[in-house]
Write a structure and sequence with these properties.
The protein is mostly helical and 56 residues long. Helices cover 73% and strands 0% of the residues. The N and C termini lie far apart (67 Å).
Length: 56
């Protein structure tokens, strides 16, 4: 099997690295969103957090 020239391999590596960074950023967004979503229903049902922020 032949490989592309070294410069092309580096371009491919750079592109894959950028995709990996985007995946990591999206995973962090998901992690940051899961905790509040798990807590929010309990806060709303208990009355500790009003459903309508204008009444706070």
């Amino acid at each position: 099997m032949s490989l592309p020239p070294l410069d092309r391999q580096r371009e491919i590596g750079t592109a894959l690295h950028a995709v990996d960074e985007k995946i990591r950023a999206h995973e962090e967004i998901i992690r940051a969103s899961v905790d509040p979503r798990a807590i929010l229903p309990d806060l709303l049902m208990s009355g500790r957090l009003p459903a309508d922020p204008s009444t706070a």
